[in-house]
UniProtKB/TrEMBL annotation:
InterPro entries: Glyco_trans_2-like (IPR001173), Glycosyltransferase_2 (IPR050256), Nucleotide-diphossugar_trans (IPR029044). It holds the Pfam family Glycos_transf_2. SUPFAM superfamilies: Nucleotide-diphospho-sugar transferases. One of its GO terms (molecular function) is undecaprenyl-phosphate 4-deoxy-4-formamido-L-arabinose transferase activity. Gene3D superfamilies: Spore Coat Polysaccharide Biosynthesis Protein SpsA, Chain A. GO terms for cellular component: plasma membrane. Keywords: Cell membrane, Glycosyltransferase, Lipopolysaccharide biosynthesis, Membrane, Transferase, Transmembrane, Transmembrane helix. It comes from the Bacteria. This is Glycosyl transferase family 2. Residues 7-168 form the Glycosyltransferase 2-like domain. Signal peptide: none annotated.
């Protein structure tokens, strides 16, 4: 099998009705463009998401299926997928179908045109299809995060991203880290770029988050990431 140039990592928890349509869209977006693989990570779903994934494998040769034996959260699932990925670059998508896989080639094109120092291309949902309360909460969270972390990223909560695998695995890991990737990548000495992408309404399943719970966790995480940035120190290395 040809080595993939890109690994599409999709974490899922109780998304059985969204899996097959999203897999179909990923293959439609990437087949014939570049070698790829799809790495689904089932985070110990209580529904039959795992059974759906295992059945799909027979007809989708690019699909790989990993399973957490205990629920561990989205950041853990993303990291599991990235560690297992065979490609040097990773694209991530949320498993709820709200990210459009057709935007992956757009991120790849942005990478090909960018400075080599850019190691993260973050999706930016310019026309969000969420409830008013969720949009309001995200808008304020982004303003607070930008002011505190100075990551100059308008939308860190967007699930579709493209980044270099090696850079990601060199970042400090903690629960919910996937929401702070631009700041963490910049802390490591690399550049990031935000790319406008599509956003779709959820058509099946239910959201795993609520505004209050996300806000309470976010305050603690923001303080932690700010501490990491304040304590960071990079040293140039020369080899002779």
């Amino acid at each position: 099998m040809t080595e993939p140039q890109i690994s599409v990592v999709v974490p899922v928890h109780n998304e059985r009705d969204n899996i097959a349509p999203l897999v179909g869209e990923i293959t439609a977006a990437l087949r014939g463009r570049l070698p790829f693989e799809i790495v689904y990570v089932d985070d110990h779903s209580a529904d039959d998401s795992l059974a759906v994934l295992r059945a799909l494998k027979a007809g989708v040769p690019e699909l790989r299926v990993l399973h957490h034996v205990a629920q561990s959260g989205q950041s853990a699932a993303v990291r599991t997928g990235v560690k297992a990925a065979r490609a040097p670059w990773i694209a991530t998508l949320d498993g709820d179908g709200q990210n459009d896989p057709a935007d992956i080639p757009k991120l790849v094109a942005a990478r090909e045109a960018a400075d080599p120092q850019v190691k993260l291309f973050a999706g930016w949902r310019v026309d969000r299809q969420d409830s008013g309360s969720k949009r309001w909460a995200s808008r304020w969270a982004n303003r607070i995060r930008c002011r505190l972390l100075r990551d100059e990223t308008p939308d860190t909560g967007c699930g579709i991203k493209l980044f270099e695998r090696e850079v990601f695995l060199d970042l400090p890991y903690f629960d919910h880290m996937h929401r702070y990737l631009p700041a963490l990548v910049q802390r490591a000495g690399w550049k990031t770029v935000s790319v406008p992408v599509a956003h779709r309404a959820r058509t099946s399943g239910v959201s795993k988050y609520n505004n209050l719970g996300r806000a309470l966790v976010g305050i603690r995480d923001l303080r932690g990431v700010a501490w990491l940035i304040a304590r960071s120190h990079r040293t140039r290395v020369e080899e002779f």
